[in-house]
Amino acid sequence: MPTVKFKPTTPSRRNMTAPSFEEVTRKSPEKKLIVIKKKNSGRNSYGKITVRHRGGGNKIKYRLIDFKRQDASANTVLGIEYDPNRSAYIALLENGEGKRSYIVAPVGLKDGDVVYSAPDADIKPGNTLPISNIPVGTMIHNIELYPGKGAQLVRSAGVFAQLIAKENGQAQVRLPSGEVRIIRLDCKATIGQVGNIEHDTVKLGKAGKKRHMGIRPTVRGSVMNAVDHPHGGGEGKSPIGHPGPVTPWGKPALGYKTRNTKARTNKFIIKRRNAK
Prior knowledge:
This protein is mostly beta strands. Helix content is about 5%, strand content about 25%.
């Protein structure tokens, strides 16, 4: 997916790039597969802000994606669509009975292609199989952690995992972060790499685009008052006054590991990401 560059007619246009949407073949979503997405502006069920710098943004509707892929019949690709809820594109499928569903579109999937979700399906992009039936070395995405729960791993634009080993009823999968993780062989995964590969090369160009996404400005703690942030206060440009940077609530930031050392799933991680 090449990006489109703009002429520098304004300061914001000078560095702006946008996706060309060459892969997108369908403009409007399937009405039966969209639901209203209510905004919470970073607030939890008690109304407390748990994610800062959120609010505003364009109204969007959520597309119901089939991450379980339980339909074993032949599904024909009707079109590739843009999804405002994720970085990847989505594909609209239709089976022989006329039932339609969305999946995350992998690289190379085109209108008219037929995909399957069955143990004996071919090893080609878009087909979903149990990991036990996928050859070692295959690129995969949409990986389940628990059989039947639906895909939870490797769903963003341009990413893929690699199946590197199978033994003792378990598989070793190298994730995009570099982490090597054990996954059960009866979990499903989809063949191929997620589409929209050049998503990370897009330059927004102006602050307004972030506001359209519902992300509000982030202010440095060092320019706040002391009452608002541990880094704040002082005359002029003052040092932060701590051995290292901290969060607004005084917890260590930048490099401080927050994962629970007694987490139940630690035993499934063979190699940590960024491990030396």
